[in-house]
Design goal:
The protein is 24% helix and 26% strand. By secondary structure, it is α/β, with parallel strands linked by helices. The chain has two domains: 6-138 and 312-342, Alpha-Beta Complex (Quinone Oxidoreductase, Chain A, domain 1); 143-287, NAD(P)-binding Rossmann-like Domain (Rossmann fold, 3-Layer(aba) Sandwich), CATH 3.40.50.720. The strands form three sheets. Strands 3, 4, 5, 6, 7, 14 and 15 form a seven-stranded mixed β-sheet that branches. The protein is globular and about 65 Å long. The relative contact order is 0.15.
Length: 349
């Protein structure tokens, strides 16, 4: 068989700044990305070969390159970068996978990947149901939707009549989290930066959207939530977390999903004592620690998506060559929604 080239994005050098346990910035730089090629891998016994169609630039990309102490190792220099992918099985020696199946997981950023049915985090490859676009496997039905669902359902517990505040509401996870909170009967306030992003979030049905670029975010929240915030779903940290802490209702729940503002460097939090004053709790989760919950979440999210009860915001870049700029855009607050790069046509599309 005449195999095509296997393009890949490799780690060119160690990122200079920061690290998860240091006070430096975490955002990657363009010189960490290097294009290369490799042989198309051969699937062995019990393995599948996947034709990758989509890459998903995630804020986690800095972590895939640097490693997280106690969670996973850094990617060696010269090796293919790891990241979210969606594609099709094009050869299979695995009993659970057949040619044409839609599949997603955390593998290498290259044209073709092999897998024994697990991804590079040791998690099972996830099936994208027939009839569902491959990109939704990385959007509402992937880490994006599942983080929104896990954080809200397991930690936030929004109830009818609650006021739920979401930072990074124009982002991949925040845009879904707000919609799920509305389905739970809550009044939902989003925080975004700039009029254009606020309009996008409003279009998703959020009750109110606060523009953080207008300043006095603490005052804006106080005005929008005069009885206080019952659930704060935080993707950003920094001054957004601080402003939300000052406005918690008694018994509030703060969900720590991410801290994008901290990825650029240290940023102080001064209002944490409000957790004590308001009898509030703050809890976080790591997506890969909750594999047992993914199937239930995906079923629920799949039904909402099919019924039009939630909408995905997708921010699509076309072309393998544009991966670094799409991956860096997320650290620069560019675009709205789930960032995706289409690197090939769906061979079964
Ligand atoms: N807990 C977990 O297991 C888990 C898993 C995946 C991701 N995460 C984390 O969850 C968070 C959200 O992920 P996501 O995929 O939704 O990311 P995303 O699509 O990049 O959205 C994050 C949003 O944060 C806002 N933002 C505020 N300050 C920012 C800054 N200084 N730089 C860049 N963006 C800023 C941006 O919207 P505006 O410009 O409108 O403010 C952006 O749209 C991230 O922190 C990520 O690391 C956690």
């Amino acid at each position: 068989m005449n195999m095509p080239t296997n393009r890949q994005w490799q780690v060119a050098k160690s990122p200079e700044s920061g690290g998860l346990t240091s006070s430096g910035g975490l955002a990657l730089t363009a010189d960490v990305f290097k294009p290369g090629t490799a042989e198309v891998p051969e699937p062995g016994a019990g393995e599948v070969l996947i034709r990758v169609v989509w890459f998903s630039p995630d804020p986690m990309n800095h972590a895939w390159v640097r490693g997280i102490p106690g969670k996973f190792d850094p990617t060696p220099i010269g090796a293919a970068m790891k990241g979210g992918i969606a594609g099709r099985v094009v050869a299979s020696n695995h009993p659970d996978w057949k040619i044409g199946d839609g599949v997603t997981g955390f593998l290498e950023w290259q044209d073709y990947c092999v897998s024994d049915g697990t991804d590079r985090m040791g998690a099972p490859l996830q099936r994208i149901p027939a009839g569902v676009p491959l990109e939704s496997g990385l959007g509402a039905l992937g880490m994006t939707g599942l983080c929104a669902w896990l954080g809200l359902v397991d930690i936030g517990h929004p109830a009818p009549g609650d006021t739920v505040l979401v930072s990074g509401a124009s982002g991949a996870i925040g845009s879904i989290a707000g919609q799920i909170a509305r389905l739970a009967g809550a009044r939902v306030i989003g925080i975004a930066r700039g009029a254009d992003k606020c309009d996008v979030v409003k279009g998703l049905g959020f009750d109110e959207v606060l523009d953080a670029t207008k300043g006095d975010l603490m005052g804006q929240i106080a005005q929008a939530a005069p009885k206080g915030v019952d659930v704060f779903f935080d993707n950003v940290g920094g001054y957004m977390l601080d402003a939300a802490l000052a406005n918690l209702a008694h018994g509030a729940r703060v969900v720590v999903c991410g801290a994008t503002a901290h990825y650029d460097g240290p940023t102080p939090i001064t209002n944490h004592l409000m957790l004590a004053m308001r009898g509030a709790t703050m809890g976080g989760f790591f997506y890969f620690d909750h594999i047992a919950r993914w199937a239930e979440g995906r079923d629920r999210l799949g039904q909402w998506l099919a019924n039009g009860q939630i909408r995905e915001l997708l921010d699509i870049t076309d072309g393998f060559d544009h991966v670094p700029e799409a991956a860096l855009a997320q650290f620069q607050g560019k675009g709205a929604g789930r960032k995706l790069v289409k690197i090939a046509d769906d061979p079964f599309g």
